[in-house]
Amino acid sequence: MKITIIGTGYVGLVTGACLAEIGNDVFCLDVDPRKIDILNAGGVPIHEPGLQELIARNRAAGRIQFSTDVAASVAHGDIQFIAVGTPPDEDGSADLQYVLAAARAIGTHMTGFKVVVDKSTVPVGTAARVQAAIREALASRGVAASFSVVSNPEFLKEGAAVDDFMRPDRIVIGCDDDALGQKARELVKRLYAPFNRNHERTLYMDVRSAEFTKYAANAMLATRISFMNELANLADCVGADIEAVRRGIGSDPRIGYDFLYSGCGYGGSCFPKDVQALIRTADENAQRLHILEAVEAVNENQKQILVRKIVKRLGDDLGGKRFAVWGLAFKPNTDDMRAAPSRPIIAELLARGASIVAHDPVSMDEARRVFALDFADQPDALARISYVDEPRKALAGADALVIVTEWKAFKSPDFAYVKAQLKTPVIFDGRNLYDPSSVAEHGIEYFGIGRSESA
Ligand code: NAD
Ligand code: UGA
């Protein structure tokens, strides 16, 4: 099938590459010429395991192309995916300017029937706005081409995006009930048929429910994390180990093991913004989502939990202290720094006078870029962040080690070496990577999240 993907970011690029892999003819459009140039030069603008090989293979086979040419992209696909960003607006609601610009682009260039698929995460009612924007653009040209807007939210996780897309738990398709909606449904059904593997994974529903499903899923996952973080903080007070508790409750199949890891807060481009956007949607409907408001507040608090433990152990004034920081990306296996907990943690340590020597296996270039923006008006603070290309190099002469992201490379360090390098042999672990007693055996003080230690 001929597919156009509007927006070649994390979701658009993975969607395009995976749809090409199963034999479709894919055209990826982006307004950012830098991204398109990188892709056309054989590179990949993001770090995502398996993506580079997938793109290279499909480019070589002529099944995927990248361009900034809007007219050509709209002409190409019978199915037009909208996969542009929906960042938070100032009030927390989803900013739909990119989605509506994509819709207008489709309406401005289409000449025949198109299925328009909203893959971006968008508030309930957005498909109707996309439809109106396309209609308006068509009317201004005096063209009467038909189309239908389908909601097909994406559930992939960064760092496992290719696998999640290729082996989805479910595929949610929201379609209109009318004849065009049914025609669209048949096309999208055909497109996704190869992903059903051994049983049907596609869930058909109305457009609004599909849009809502995406927010409900992210809100539920964020809720589990904040719930566990709150319990972890209590476990610290009462002398319980949240890791034992996690195993104890996760073994109940009604609860399950996933997304019960406490830590230094959830980050990324989705949970924070989607929780906020759903709260705003409720607001607009004169409702309160009390639980989600608490989920967000707990997460804001949790992003400072490591700093509080550091201050409690090392004192309020961190002037002249140096911290080795392992992990900057919001989670392992990605270079994404959007809403990464490392940002507020490092900002607070710098504000208290500390300096930072950081290492991340893949996100250091991106970290340099975002920290330069975060501290654009504080050159003195920015100058106190430096980067090293190996985790062990961050340790020499540091006052303590702070772990923010659970990269595999950090899971089994040489603790004797860590102890020898640190001025104060102490680890503040925001991802509960180690068994507290075995770290203690090496003569290192260890502060995790909810592991019942004193700080
Ligand atoms: P992103 O910022 O990585 O990519 C968006 C791309 O769209 C950018 O490259 C941007 O230049 C491009 N763009 C903006 N306006 C455009 C236009 N008019 N025409 C063509 N290109 C345009 O964003 P992302 O992380 O891929 O997220 C996209 C959407 O998918 C969001 O709504 C997000 O919530 C949702 N989502 C993201 C993930 C994820 O893991 N990142 C997972 C599921 C859903
Ligand atoms: C999340 C969802 O998992 C995806 O299903 C969804 O498609 C995506 O958002 C989206 O809508 O964009 P992602 O943000 O890539 O995916 O990463 P997650 O693995 O969900 O992690 C998000 C944050 O939660 C990370 O900071 C991670 O460290 C944190 N987390 C995760 C915990 O603190 N504890 C856990 O148990 C799990």
TrEMBL record:
It catalyses: UDP-alpha-D-glucose + 2 NAD(+) + H2O = UDP-alpha-D-glucuronate + 2 NADH + 3 H(+). One of its GO terms (molecular function) is NAD binding. It comes from the Bacteria. Residues 324-436 form the UDP-glucose/GDP-mannose dehydrogenase C-terminal domain. The keyword Oxidoreductase applies. It holds the Pfam family UDPG_MGDP_dh_C. Its EC number is 1.1.1.22. Substrate binds at F155, L156, K157, E158, K214, F259, L260, Y261, S262, G263, G267, K331. Keywords: NAD, Oxidoreductase. It is an enzyme of class 1 (oxidoreductase). Belongs to the UDP-glucose/GDP-mannose dehydrogenase family. This is UDP-glucose 6-dehydrogenase.
